[in-house]
Amino acid sequence: MYGELVLVALIIIGLVGRSSIITTAACILLVIKLTHLDRYLPTIERRGIELGLLFLTLAVLVPFASGRIQPKDMIDAFGGWVGWVALAGGAIGAYLNSKGLETLKMDPQLIVGIVVGSIAGVVLLRGIPVGPLMAAGITAMILKIVQLFIGK
User: Which stretches are annotated as coiled coil (predicted)?
Assistant: First the structure.
């Protein structure tokens, strides 16, 4: 019963915050719970990030597949400093994601704060919840910085 109440609360928060992603995700999970398909929740939890990243990557690669980005465009992208900054940003983002995954494996209860923080970011800051790995990676980075200052 607790899970259903949390999902209904998330639906309301998503509606109030005009976040169709949170609303839709909570609705789908509520339907799964109410139709007694709970046995699929561990699979969704285990494979959901992979599936979400797959679709996100597909969306990002569509301009290549559709021919909107040509080889010349790819070469031109690294003709200026902005392209090199984008390359560094991609590499740093991938690194942070790996650190986020390590952090979540070592300290899984952090997911609660990450999920609540992501919801707050969507509702209050009009952010987009693209995944807990980056949030966990940023969390890992902040934790390292704090540990440097307090010496732990």
Answer: none
